[in-house]
Amino acid sequence: MTNAAGAKPRILVTFGTRPEAIKMFPVVFALRETGLFDVKVVVTAQHRELLDSVMALASLQPDLDLDLMLPDQSLDGLASRILTRFGEALDTLRPDRVLVHGDTLTTMMASLACYFRRIPVGHVEAGLRSGDIYSPWPEEVNRKVTGVVANLHFAPTDTAAAALRAENVPENSIHITGNTVIDALLFAQQKIAADPSLAPAIAPLRERFKGRRIIAVTAHRRENFGTGMEQIAQGLQALAARDDVALIYPLHPNPNVAGVMRPALAGHANIALINPLDYLDFVAMMAASDIVLTDSGGIQEEAPSLGKPVLVMRDTTERPEGVAAGTARLVGADAAVIFAETTRLLDDPGAYQAMARAHNPYGDGTASARIAAILAASL
C-alpha cells in the first residue's frame, strides 16, 4: 500500500444497506484504532431508511453519502447509478485501497469502479457460495464478480476459504477471520446491558405474549417474491393458530413483502406485525425469541450466537456451516414444511436443545481486529 511521503495510506470503506453497515462498522472502528490509516467511509444508501439507524448506533458519520435510493428502483438502474457515482467518489477521494462487504449491488459495482481505476479491493465476508446464481438472486453473482476483482479475501470460515480455493484464488490472498457480525452483536449486547432503554420496542411485546413461545420472523428475499411469500404467510398463519405461540415480525417496507403479509397476518391476536427495528431492538427481539424463522443471510450467523435455532426459509444457503453445525436447518418457502419443522422444535425438547446448544461456527467477535492486523501487515 503506497501513498505520498509521510501520509497515511487511505482506506475507503463502502456499504449501502443495513446488514452491510452492521458488519462493517466494527471494521471501521478497528482500522481507526490502529492509527495507521486514513479511513474514509462512503455510503451509497441503496437502502436509505434501514441504513441510517445503524450509522446512528455506531456514531458513524460518512465522509460521503451518495444517497442513491429511489422508489421502486430496478436492479440495472441502481447498478448504473452506483457505478458512476461511486466512480466519481473514487476520483475525488483517491484511496489506496477499498473495502467492500458481502454481496450487494454496492459490493459488486463499487468493485468494478475500483477495477476500472486499478484500485485494489479487499472483500470482507468473501467466499460465500450457494452454487446457484439465481438463489440467492442477485447476491450470488454480486459476490462472485467481487471475488474476481478483489486481491484480499477475508473469509469468515474454513468453508468460505475452501470455496475461494476451488475458484483458483491465490492462497496468499485468502485470510480466515471469522465473521464481523459477531463483533457487532457483542457490541450491541454490551450497549443493551448498559442501558436497556436503548432497545424499547420488544419489552411491551414480551409482556403481551408472556407465557408463550416467541418466534421471531424475517422474510424479504427477492427470490421469495410472489408464490414464496404467499407460502411463508400460510405457514405463519398455521403456526399462529397455536395458543402457546406468538410471532413477532418486523415487516420489510418492500411492497412485494408487505403487500402479501399485511393482508394475510394483520389483526391476528398471536402475531405482532411491527415496523422495521433498529439494530439494538432487533438483537433484543432475537434474544427474546425461542426460534428464528428467516430467509435472511446474516441472521443465520447472529441467532446461533444467542443460542436460538434458525429455520431458513430458502432452498439453498451460502452459509452451509450453520446447517452442518446443526444451528440452522433449510425448510424452503413451503408452508407445510415451515409448519412441520417449527412444530417439531416447539414440541420436541430434544430436537430443540440439539439446535440451541450447537456450536456457532461463525467466530469469536475479533474478526475486525484480525482484518485490521492483516491490512497493517501489508503496509
Explain what this protein looks like in three dimensions.
The chain is an alpha/beta fold. The protein has two domains: 10-179 and 364-377, Rossmann fold; 200-356, 3-Layer(aba) Sandwich (Rossmann fold), CATH 3.40.50. Helix content is 47%, strand content 15%. It is built from 16 helices and 13 strands. The protein has a seven-stranded parallel sheet, sandwiched between helices. A six-stranded parallel sheet has the order 10-9-8-11-12-13, with helices on both faces. Strand 4, helix 4 and strand 5 (121-124) form a beta-alpha-beta unit. Helix 1 (18-34) packs across helix 7 (180-194), helix 7 (180-194) packs across helix 11 (279-288) and helix 9 (227-240) runs parallel beside helix 10 (255-265). It is globular, with a radius of gyration of 20 Å. The model has no long low-confidence stretch (mean pLDDT 95).
Total beta strand runs = 13
CATH architecture descriptor of the largest domain = 3-Layer(aba) Sandwich
Task: Give the overall average pLDDT.
Answer: 95
CATH topology of the largest domain: Rossmann fold
Structural class: alpha/beta
Estimate what percentage of residues fall within beta strands. Answer: 5-15%
Number of domains: 2
Q: How would you sum up the major sheet? A: 7 strands, parallel
Q: End-to-end distance, in Å?
A: 5 Å
Order of helices and strands: EHEHEHEHEHEHEHHEHEHEHEHEHEHHH
CATH class of the largest domain: Alpha Beta
Number of contiguous helices: 16
Question: What's the layout of helices and strands?
Answer:
Layout lengths: L9 E6 L2 H17 L3 E6 L4 H10 L6 E2 L9 H19 L3 E5 L3 H12 L4 E4 L14 H11 L2 E4 L2 H9 L7 E3 L3 H15 L8 H6 L4 E6 L8 H14 L4 E6 L4 H11 L5 E4 L4 H10 L2 E4 L4 H7 L4 E3 L7 H6 L2 E3 L4 H13 L1 H8 L10 H11 L2
Parallel strand pairs: 1-2, 1-4, 2-3, 4-5, 5-6, 6-7, 8-9, 8-11, 9-10, 11-12, 12-13
Helix pairs in contact: 1-2, 1-7, 1-16, 3-4, 4-5, 7-11, 9-10, 9-14, 14-15
